[in-house]
Amino acid sequence: MSSKKVVILPGDDAAPETVYAAMEVMHSLALPLEFVEFPPGEQWVRGETDKAARAAIDASDSTLFGSTSGKTTAVTYLRWGKETYANVRPCRFLQGFRSPLAHPEGIDFVIVRENLEDLYLGLEGPLAALAPLHLHSRILRSELDTDEPGRYAIKVITERNTRRIARFAFNLARQRKAQGRPGKVTCTSKYNMLRESDGLFRRIVAETATEYPDVAYEEFIVDDFARRLVQMPQMLDVVVMPNLYGDILSDAAAGIIGGLGLAPSGCYGDHYAYFESVHGTAPDIMGLGIINPTATMLSAVMMLEYLGLEEAARRFRNAVSKVYADGKVLTPDQNGTAKTREFTRAVIANL
Fold it and tell me: pLDDT (tens digit, 9 = 90+) per residue, 238-260?
């Protein structure tokens, strides 16, 4: 197999420790990968490093990214520049995960989050700027009072982005069904209140469902879905939702299996994908060598699958699973005492 080029963006604070751990496992697998490595965000030169990173990303097959607190600026290019519109966040319980639920067995679903719009466009400003629009509130049945000091934020839902995230979710559900999973898509948004924006999201997803008669479909208002996420997560398969809800609820999903240190993700476009853990940069434990690298490792597994290295991905995932099933070499967030380095060695030993 010809070599694939992978950009490594270690990220900021403690995040690089998890990326280097994942790289160590991949090196042990002797993969046909060429790593193009950049320094942690603390060492970036504004403008110069970012420009080089963008060029490297354009010349690569994928990127493995840590997490950023704002120092690693290329993440904006990875999302909007490469149009990676589908943020895929698996939630799967493995034996040995420290779940707060009494019976987490069988949790295995995926949140598919629209990744480019909603409130994440950053369209905010002083309330007074809306005065020339004479906006009318459907709820208050009166014109918006823009004389009151305050701020606004604009939520944007487009037909194009909703339709392609919907199709992505249904195609994923179809793939999962072929692997023995339920083959069901659940749509959630606040369509009962936000009838124009979230209502549009719901309508287009429901329309898309008719193109996939072999995939089951259901929909719930987002607050009801939040309850179901905690109360009956085993009933879920593929869940599709707008950007903001996806960001919030995927963190909640990580919580039910044992924490953010266990939660991987991938951001997919039509022509590119990058992979990162769901958790942040953990500045409070930077340099202590105790951060859990599981989320980044499982993100690397997703990347290997994307690159067509399925057997290596299977070995990597199974090795992580064996470490948790054994339960002897776990990091402090999972009630263990192992250092990041020890955990990594244990994974390599199980390859």
Answer: 999 999 999 999 999 999 999 99
pTM score: 0.95
- Burial (CB count <10 Å: 0-12, 13-18, 19+), residue 174: middle
CA distance 100 to 8: 33
Domain encompassing residue 11: 1-97+260-351
**Domain total of the chain:** 3
Q: Is residue 207 domain-shared with residue 104, that is, in the same domain? A: yes
Residue showing tokens 């809800």: 245
Cα dihedral 142→147→149→155 (10° resolution) = 50
CA dist 141 and 143 (Å) reads: 7
Rounded Cα–Cα distance for residues 315 and 321 (Å)? 10
Domain harbouring 80, CATH code: 3.40.718.10
Which are the contacts of 319, defined by CB distance < 8 A and separation ≥ 6?
A: 25, 347, 348, 350, 351
Distances (CA, A) of 191 to 12, 116, 194, 241: 37, 19, 5, 11
